Amino acid sequence: MTPAARRWRIALLVFDLVTITYFIVSSMMDPENVNHLIDYAIAAVLALDYGLRMYAAHRPWRMVFEFTNVADLIVILSLFASAFIDNLAFLRVVRMLRLLRSYHLLRELRSASLFFRRNEEIIQSAINLMVFVFVVTAVVFVTEGHQNPSINTYLDALYFTVTTLTTTGFGDITMTDSFGRLLTVLIMIFGVGLFLRLVQTIFRPQKVAYDCPDCGLSRHDPDAVHCKHCGRTINIPTEGEWA
């Protein structure tokens, strides 16, 4: 990779991180107090990036229907929508779909950072939990914000989601309709599963990903010389920095 290509790649990573952070923060703010020029500027950059990716793709129409690209298109349209209609809360919440780009970020950083390669499973589990929390919070805010008097802001929805996910259940915010109660059940089932997965990856002994040519065992100790399953000598690429 040329130095210019590497700089461009890093710039795209930084831009994705900044936009994701902006969408999370702005969703918690009063839409009337946010400068829409920022939305339009981000939308223009995202639209340019989307168009260039479509142009460079071998099968652009197939790429259009990929889930992350559909999410990107929805986010772009939601950003431009404030030029024609009032910037309603649901437009800001829809932008939480941009969190799906975090999986793309992880793939990019895996090849650029030893830290990410060493802690990939922990980071992946943390991102899964983060995406789940913020996207479900958006669903709670959109579906319950207009009918539940206890949920007036995105922060209220986030508070409800986290207390439900952790099974703390203070009881100060409760769902009164059937859909809300069903959503609460789904938060508890899937959210607790993702949380336990994160805890498991944090405390499980660290392994590296490497497929054994004979038996296919894909996880080994960082300093392994032989496959523990079949005994074959393996050659795990390393930079000599494993603890």
Description of the molecule:
The structure is a single chain. The longest helix is centred in the last third of the chain and has 26 residues. 62% of the residues lie in helices and 2% in strands. The model has no long low-confidence stretch (mean pLDDT 79). With 243 residues, it is an all-alpha fold. It is built from ten helices and two strands; from the N terminus they run ααααααααααββ. It starts with a helix and ends in a 23-residue tail after the last strand. The protein has a two-stranded antiparallel sheet with strand order 1-2.
Low-confidence regions: none
Q: Taking Cα atoms only, what radius of gyration do you get, to the nearest Å?
A: 21 Å
How many helical stretches? 10
Q: What is the distance, rounded to the nearest whole angstrom, between the alpha carbons of the first and last residues?
A: 29 Å
Q: Strand sequence of the main sheet, in spatial order?
A: 1-2
The tally of strands reads 2
Structural class designation: mainly alpha
Main pleated sheet: 2 strands, antiparallel
Order of helices and strands: HHHHHHHHHHEE
Task: Assign an overall shape.
Answer: flat
Helix content: 55-70%
Q: Kindly report the average pLDDT value.
A: 79
Work out the strand percent.
Answer: under 5%
